[in-house]
Amino acid sequence: QHRRATISSMSTPQTPTAYDPRRGNAVVAAALAEWKAGVREPPAGDPARIREYLRACGFARPDDYDADGDAEWCGAFAAFCLISAGVRPELVRQKSPPESGGLGSTYRLHCLAKAAPGRLISLASDLRPGDVVSVGRPGKVKWGEHIVICTERPTPFDEASTFATVEGNATGAGPGGLRYEGVVRRSRPVMPSSSAKGFIFGFRPLPGDFIGEHHE
Fold this sequence. Notes:
This protein is α+β, with helices and mostly antiparallel strands. It is built from five helices and six strands. It has a six-stranded antiparallel sheet.
């Protein structure tokens, strides 16, 4: 039996809410639309779109973003895509104190995922398109180092599996085969290693986290 990747701080695996392809595909579509737009870090790209991501996530002074490194916006990109897919904006915006959740950091994302039963994905084998994922390396921050959007689940699942992503504030493949820093497509391993950031935990919004939808 293959050993499964789980977040180290959890003693028992968490069961995420049932996957709805309609919601998941809407998140992926939003992420791919940004990727196809060729969003790049300045000075190669215009920072205006990255400011929109920061604004969606509730960052202070988003219009101050002018150069690569002014903010870590991977979570802001994911928040923008979730909002575009119908998630309530107030759910994914960073809050004060950090324990209130949001997508402004991997720690905030972990707090948000744990805040309600069904949001937290503790097994990489449970990943589905549209899920938000924290990736990291062993011995680093226990809740991960970077936030990505899963676009293709790891299949077949084993320790050597990878999952496809669209992610912001990263270096990878852009449209037309270009490689740059910005909104890119990548492949991430399910098992973290010292050389590659792999699955730490995932987040899947509940039905009631979407505008106009409620828990039954």
